Amino acid sequence: MNIAIIGTGAYGIALALMFHKNNNKISMWTKFEEEKERIINERENKKVLPGVKIPDDITISNDIEETIKDKELIVIAVPAGFVDDVSFEIGKYYQDNQYVLLASKGIERNSCLFVGDIFKRHVKTKKYGVISGPSFAVDMVTNCPIGLTMASGNKKTRLVVRKALESDSIKIRESRDVIGVEICGSIKNVIAIAAGMLDGMGYPESTQAMFIVESLHDIKELISKLGGDRKTILSYAGFGDLLLTATSKKSRNFSYGRLLGSKAPKSEVEAYVSTTTIEGLYTIQSIYKLLKNKRVRIPIINLIYDIIEGKKKVDSLPEFLINKK
Fold this sequence. Notes:
The protein is an alpha/beta fold and 325 residues long. The protein has 2 domains: 175 residues, NAD(P)-binding Rossmann-like Domain (Rossmann fold); 145 residues, N-(1-d-carboxylethyl)-l-norvaline Dehydrogenase, domain 2. It has an 8-stranded mixed beta sheet with strand order 3-2-1-4-5-6-7-8, with helices on both faces. The chain is globular and about 55 Å long. The N and C termini lie far apart (51 Å).
């Protein structure tokens, strides 16, 4: 199968290698000319996945029309904030026989739209789906067993993605609950920030476990109130991804929260934010606004928002857990 990967970040590269492993022909796109030339010359992206080689037969381009032309599957793997721009460009050249897989996660700040809705704003098709699950790029590229949830309302899209990606190290469970998977994929980054706060404050695994369980209940309610299936919380995209992101120091969101919890100097926190993509920071603004607009109350989200905005002290988090109804 001919596949286009939009994005040359860590997750885009990891997915490219997994598709390539199954003998698919891969083309990758990056917006930046300098990044394109560096990857072509070095056959790796040292900034995000140092030491992980990109096979010579994977092409790299910054021409999006060239990248997606005649491809059977288009995979969008850019940070949430760039999905609108790349979807607009894809919409200019998209062909009706192409399938699209959204590996990006998050909510647009101004519109409060999830990634799937942002994409549909520019590309009119039912042949799209979303993928999410506990899968750090560095683990994926070493062929560790990884479980992913792939959701689409279109059965053929689910089959196409599964055939192209599933392997001896990648297991895919199908779902039709696109909104539920998108909520889980977005909100887990926010929850991971709070988990990092607890770790930074020195609380043990027992407190972390308590926090994760309370968060699962809240996410389940959020899924239901926004029109998804409560059961999705028990999927790879739900509990699986939350467990990974909210307990691992490999998680950028967890690491950021850890800095806040340990009350690191402001300069250190700002330096980390300026050099690291922290999706949870982008998402918390959007989800807070979305819930306020829909008059939906999810207390844990409000508290994390208030702590990040400096309206409440990080020390209020453990007290909140005890008093939470």
